[in-house]
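FIELD: query
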Amino acid sequence: MRGTKASERGDGGMARRTLLGSLAAVGLGALGACGGGGSATTAADSSSASSASSSGASSGGTAVETTASPWIWARTGTSTTPKMPALADFVRVVASGTVNYAFHAGIASTTTDPVTGVVSDSSSGAMLVPYFMGKYLVTNANWKAFMNAVGASYSPGSYWNDGSYPAGKEDHPVLFVSCNDAKAYCAWLTTQIPGYVFYVPTEGEWEYAALGGNTTYSFPWGTAANLSFNSSTGVLGTVYNCNALCTRFVLADSGIQTLTYYNDETVTTLSDGATPLTNDTAPLARVLSMNSSGGVTGWQYDSTTNRTWADFANSDTYDELVHRFGGYTTTVGSFAGGASWCGCLDMAGNAYEWTSTVNTASNGAESGTSVNCVKGGSWYSTSASGKSTGRGEGRAPGGAYHSVGFRVAARAL
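FIELD: result
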């Protein structure tokens, strides 16, 4: 049942659909201009799981009976609220000439400029002109505005239900959207805001918005992950949403004591590789843990030697989180301490982001095939995957994934 990975099932997985939500909507700032290469923010905000318990349908939503679920911070009901993006949701990035990034020198890639159609970036250099970058990832409510205009055929799978997304997730990043569909969204947005062409950014544009001229940085704010966990108090110190945030909730607030694997045919033992599961169940304490640096053990095992071990990402609890609730995302812009030098939010964590740069995948199910680079890490990935200097495994442009969303770039016509 694992496919690419059980935890990477797309629309073809169990389509368990209903609810979810968390965090209040973030206010959208005014348009600002950014020069090149300013210093990144080095905030050290501390927060626990940035989520609030609430219930009841959102405005315009439909209340439904609450089902037994560990995700107690979820609201009930669904929402169909659309929200049009505006120029105030973009920052102008003043860039000119070639910025040399040595991060990918050993990985051949090709970038055809989405506006000019000319091959631009090399594997290590980004050839840039001034552009605008979305401050936020495209949200469920943004995507709903697009669907209202073009039709339900663009509905994300799994956690969306009949054109609705879970109540409370209006301002969370939309997931299960392919790169091809992201490009269709950009083409539509170009018809809605005159004087600009909108597009999926190149990898070079994405990295420059994240790092500017700070080519020694690993993250938008500096070199360190800025992640810590106090197991005694349950407090997680973080400036972005990676798998430590979900793990903190599961360990400290969820009330979960046992994980089940009724819907996974592969997991058969505890993580010692020897003790058989009892009735397809495993004690949470024998599965998932987190160290003081926010490193998670037991999130996912998928190698040939340990794929039968009980982990979180192949449990029924995880499957419900992904396919009913759209993952442990957070409201876009929730982590101000993780802002990039020019004011873009969530460039580390929350959702991987499509780029228009293409390379050949070196691992995963897409290994050896042409894929689009994805950047920035996600709610599902480790803290190291949030590095702006890294690439995800890459994803097929026609695929839709539980940890991949996108933001939009633009240029003036």
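FIELD: remark
The CA atoms of residues 42 and 222 lie 6 Å apart.
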